């Protein structure tokens, strides 16, 4: 999950993430078109799981994204997947940064990395779109919705991405994976009755529909760069969780903001949407349906509960790592303690859901 402050400015490179900038400069001279140093390196603030750097030269700026140094879990921090999906989507005109070069030689800076375009624009930390007047806020919300719908309509087979994930069974596999992780982490982080009930409910009410598209996996407003003055997305960031999966699961993760408070994933549940000029949840869902040529989304509430469950499991894992003393952030324990709140929100939503089988 991305941190709300991840691109909130840059600072000195953190000690654990330092590398030989001279070696990188030499590599870029050979592999990045029109590159000319000298090179200055800064690190974006916040908690990205893949360290991200701003590279500054006299005439140009770039972004470097790398695997963290050290021993990693198999398949984790796959920056090569991020580069692959962005390069493929760029061919369709989808708004992603240009990839300039990739390096699979860990000896250059200590881990694999890629260099991409630094897209300058406007980043919002909440879908309240602070700083935009009420008359135009809905345009920004609609643009976010339209861009996600556009992603889900991409023909992944024609782009050579059929092996980017597994077709079918996405929701059931995800439930099984995170339920198992929750059980494993419970030894350190404890269990929660609401979470246990949600897992059972999700398994008992699994929808029969099955659909596959490219999914982003963390499509939120703070992973978008908007034009400085227009309601137009210039770039979608953070493709680390992208795969082939259920587009409704992906969309409902984005729409989950309507059910969450502002201190959890920038939720907008407590805001007066009409006063802010923003669409309500039903209008937001209807917009997506029009863009993807659907009449409606059956079992929409099920997918919201599914995403709350997944996020709760992630928070539970953060709490477990904090208890074990190996969490990545000093704030990990505080973040992890939100697990109970999200699990209870998920169970409350499940109880209200018409998806529940009688």
Automatic annotation (TrEMBL):
<dbReference type="InterPro" id="IPR041726">
    <property type="entry name" value="ACAD10_11_N"/>
</dbReference>
<protein>
    <submittedName>
        <fullName>Phosphotransferase family protein</fullName>
    </submittedName>
</protein>
<dbReference type="GO" id="GO:0016740">
    <property type="term" value="F:transferase activity"/>
</dbReference>
<feature type="domain" description="Aminoglycoside phosphotransferase">
    <location>
        <begin position="41"/>
        <end position="259"/>
    </location>
</feature>
<dbReference type="InterPro" id="IPR002575">
    <property type="entry name" value="Aminoglycoside_PTrfase"/>
</dbReference>
<keyword id="KW-0808">Transferase</keyword>
<dbReference type="InterPro" id="IPR011009">
    <property type="entry name" value="Kinase-like_dom_sf"/>
</dbReference>
<dbReference type="Pfam" id="PF01636">
    <property type="entry name" value="APH"/>
</dbReference>
<dbReference type="InterPro" id="IPR052898">
    <property type="entry name" value="ACAD10-like"/>
</dbReference>
């Amino acid at each position: 999950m991305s941190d709300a402050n991840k691109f909130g400015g840059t600072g000195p490179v953190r000690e654990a993430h330092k590398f030989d900038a001279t070696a990188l400069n030499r590599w870029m001279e050979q592999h990045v078109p029109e590159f000319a140093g000298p090179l200055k390196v800064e690190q974006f603030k916040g908690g990205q799981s893949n360290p991200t750097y701003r590279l500054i030269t006299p005439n140009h700026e770039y972004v470097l994204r790398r695997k963290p140094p050290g021993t990693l879990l198999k398949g984790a921090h796959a920056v090569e997947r991020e580069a692959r999906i962005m390069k493929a989507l760029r061919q369709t005109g989808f708004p992603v940064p240009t990839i300039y070069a990739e390096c699979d030689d860990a000896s250059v800076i200590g881990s694999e990395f890629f260099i991409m375009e630094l897209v300058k624009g406007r980043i919002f930390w909440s879908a309240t779109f602070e700083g935009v007047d009420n008359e135009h806020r809905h345009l920004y919300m609609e643009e976010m919705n339209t861009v996600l719908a556009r992603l889900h309509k991409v023909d992944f087979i024609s782009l050579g991405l059929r092996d980017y994930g597994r077709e079918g069974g996405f929701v059931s596999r995800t439930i099984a994976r995170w339920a198992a992780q929750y059980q494993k982490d419970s030894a350190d982080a404890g269990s929660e009755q609401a979470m246990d009930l949600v897992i059972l409910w999700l398994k008992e009410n699994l929808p029969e529909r099955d659909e596959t598209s490219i999914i982003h996996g963390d499509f939120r407003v703070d992973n978008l760069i908007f034009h400085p003055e227009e309601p137009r997305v210039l770039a979608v960031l953070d493709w680390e969780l992208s795969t082939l999966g259920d587009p409704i699961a992906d969309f409902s993760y984005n729409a989950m903001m309507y059910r969450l408070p502002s201190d959890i994933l920038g939720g907008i549940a407590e805001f007066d949407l009409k006063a802010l000029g923003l669409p309500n949840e039903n209008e937001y869902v209807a917009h997506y349906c029009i863009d993807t040529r659907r009449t409606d989304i059956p079992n929409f509430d099920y997918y919201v509960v599914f995403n709350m469950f997944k996020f709760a499991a992630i928070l539970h894992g953060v709490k477990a790592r904090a208890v074990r003393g190996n969490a990545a952030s000093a704030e990990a324990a505080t973040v992890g303690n939100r697990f109970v709140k999200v699990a209870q929100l998920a169970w409350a939503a499940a109880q209200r859901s018409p998806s529940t089988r009688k």
